[in-house]
Amino acid sequence: MGLERKCGGESMVSKKMVDALNKQLNSEYYSSYLYLAISAYYETMNLGGFATWMRMQSEEELKHALRFYEHLVDSNARVKLMLIQQPPTEWKSALAAFEEAYKHERNVTSSIHELVSLSTKEKDHATYEMLQWFVKEQVEEEKNTNDIIQDIKRVGDDGTGLLILDRELGNRKVET
Ligand code: MG
Question: Which listed site, 43, 80, 82, 97, has its alpha carbon 20 to 30 Å from 12?
């Protein structure tokens, strides 16, 4: 008595699903950390536009994390904030850093798809519905990142080309 939460009650989300959602919440924060680390790396290379793009990407990931947070809270499930893994600080080149971002997004896509499968298995329709936004978002994320990688490859060692690409990436607008 006294220590019980006022609005307790059962969550609609199974223990297995809650654990998986908390893990994804953590992984979205790692994405944010990784992209901020890549942004800082681009700053050291004087690629301000690349840095801006990655910093905005980092901020997007914080919003993704909060979507999982809100879904857990709204489902009367427990949020468990875990330690965020430390990202690297160095990459071999501007291209290598972007390639790591792309590789990471592909992993995120797999884990989102695993969550969808689990929600189907657990007959968790609300979580399934919430995840559909992420399924679509991942298609966009992979496309955007891969398009830029192709541009960096096309530019190659052309300094002027890199300068133009850097300006272009610096013009990224906040998505609404
Ligand atoms: Mg994300």
Answer: 82
